[in-house]
Request: fold
Amino acid sequence: MSKRRLSLAVLAVVLLGATTGVRSEPAASGDPALAARVQTIVMRYSEALKAGDCRGLERLLAPSAFETYRTLCEQNTEYPRFLRDFYRNASFWTSDVQPDGSRARCTLHIQTAEGETSQAMLILERHRGRKWRIARIDS
Reply:
């Protein structure tokens, strides 16, 4: 990857993070383009939580990871509103992004409007050999 393309990829992640309340720290190691892709997926996951977007969550999570949300999304009509209310004005950021070939991991930090903080380790994998999805969320 050329230096210019790498700079543009990093700039895109920074700009996207700045406009959505998701910020990130530089990747610890590995492929910078993959690190940028991981950060984009985590940003979209954060946006889906804030919007209460169950379909968006389903697209971003591997099928086994979505099972946690499936019952809530399909049987609880109030769940999207709960997500919107809970994550309203929350800040999200990533750290320790570590891409490694067909897998990547990062830490997602969340700070609610009330100042409570939490973090989760996200494991991303290539789904069906092509599309990256969040395969596991460990809090």
In short: The two ends are 34 Å apart (CA to CA). Residues 3-138 form a domain with the Nuclear Transport Factor 2; Chain: A, fold (CATH 3.10.450.50). The chain has a mean pLDDT of 81.
